[in-house]
Recover the amino acids of this structure.
């Protein structure tokens, strides 16, 4: 294709392409939305003019009503719902990328003022383009057809000769092209202004960042729940299954009862873990209609956790553990669970000593087990359990630490009893 052909094709696409047509629809929609405000303007301006018919009145009445309608449009644009409606229409018809426009209602003063500016610009300019689209095409088509139809020529009162015929056809065609060009240019102008007036304000960006931070914190919390629950279950099941396998391989009939107890512990552990897994997955599947709270086990269920942990635990308590607030009690349960999982993974069946003391201001947890003779097998990338323990304590305003100390692996945590999730 030659260069002039490409230029004509590009010009035709710019004036009559799909984007130009959608933007013209956007402008006409703005003109339609202005009509109620324009009618109110005619009621205000009508008594000040000599027009007997509001719709066929003078230009003074038409533009006077238009001038009254614009401030009313600006006031309507201040309502919070004006922005989401405008954003939906601009995304669909103006071809503005969605990420450049704000989501949700306009809550701040700056956002409402900018939305009012967009609403006024859209409806005001749209009314002018709509009026031109209604009035100009019939007149332009009449000029084009006047050399062929004498009735049209007589109605318009134009002379009949060759030069006038060419001039009228050219004038009518030029009017239609000019209307298309003005409509496309106006639509492009609105598309450029949409991100400026409908884009997110600094307050919107801050609110979006806070939402993302909240969502990330929730995802991390759920990841810790899954890690602690499933990780502990797998560690306990692995240990119990290994012990049962060794007993079966030994062929000693007297140890059948031990195998039965091991299998029962595996069954109970997996059943409990599946229930906890269902709870977490159910929370993930919520579509925003839940309260986002995961009611996990608390210290009231500690005895059951220790009995099926797969390791001998000596428990020392001080204070009333059942009186600890639920948020703190849930985190304390998970910290103990992770401590047991860590002991199972790295120290096998070595006994664990657990101290839990509920004071007036804080809950103290301390776990100890012998350090194994051989170094523990490290997983690729390292484990997440002890990091999760520290995160749980930090969320409550407390602190946690873990590490070897004089031949003993010690995990300790202090949780303020006034801490909240």
């Amino acid at each position: 294709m030659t260069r002039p052909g490409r230029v004509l094709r590009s010009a035709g696409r710019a004036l009559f392409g799909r984007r130009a047509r959608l933007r013209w629809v956007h402008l006409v929609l703005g003109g339609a939305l202005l009509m109620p405000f324009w009618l109110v303007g005619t009621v205000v301006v009508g008594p000040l003019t000599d027009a007997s018919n509001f719709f066929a009145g003078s230009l003074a009445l038409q533009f006077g009503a238009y001038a009254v309608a614009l401030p009313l449009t600006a006031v309507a644009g201040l309502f919070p719902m004006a922005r989401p409606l405008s954003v939906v229409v601009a995304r669909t018809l103006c071809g503005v990328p969605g990420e450049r426009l704000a989501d949700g209602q306009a809550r701040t003063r700056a956002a409402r003022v900018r939305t009012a500016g967009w609403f006024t610009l859209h409806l005001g300019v749209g009314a002018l383009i709509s009026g031109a689209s209604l009035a100009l095409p019939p007149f332009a088509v009449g000029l084009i057809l006047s050399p062929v139809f004498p009735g049209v020529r007589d109605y318009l009162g134009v002379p009949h000769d060759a030069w006038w015929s060419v001039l009228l056809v050219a004038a009518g065609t030029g009017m239609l092209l000019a209307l298309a060009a003005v409509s496309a240019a106006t639509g492009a102008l609105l598309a450029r202004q949409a991100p400026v007036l409908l884009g997110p304000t600094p307050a919107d960006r801050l609110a979006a960042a806070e939402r993302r931070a909240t969502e990330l914190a929730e995802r991390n919390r759920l990841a810790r729940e899954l890690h602690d629950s499933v990780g502990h279950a797998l560690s306990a099941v692995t240990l119990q299954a290994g012990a049962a396998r060794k007993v079966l391989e030994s062929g000693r009939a007297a140890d059948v009862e031990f195998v039965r107890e091991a299998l029962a512990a595996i069954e109970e552990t997996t059943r409990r873990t599946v229930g906890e897994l269902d709870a977490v997955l159910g929370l993930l599947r919520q579509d925003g209609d839940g309260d986002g709270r995961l009611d996990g086990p608390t210290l009231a269920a500690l005895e059951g956790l220790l009995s099926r942990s797969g390791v001998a635990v000596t428990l020392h308590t001080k204070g009333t553990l059942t009186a600890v607030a639920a948020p703190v009690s849930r985190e304390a349960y998970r910290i103990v669970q992770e401590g047991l999982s860590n002991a199972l993974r790295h120290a096998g069946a070595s006994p664990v000593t657990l101290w839990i003391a509920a004071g007036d201001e804080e809950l103290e947890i301390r776990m100890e087990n012998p350090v194994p003779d051989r170094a523990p097998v490290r997983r690729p990338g390292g484990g997440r359990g002890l990091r999760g323990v520290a995160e749980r304590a930090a969320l409550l305003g407390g602190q946690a630490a873990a590490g070897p100390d004089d031949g003993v692996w010690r995990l300790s945590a202090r949780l303020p009893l006034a801490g909240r999730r």
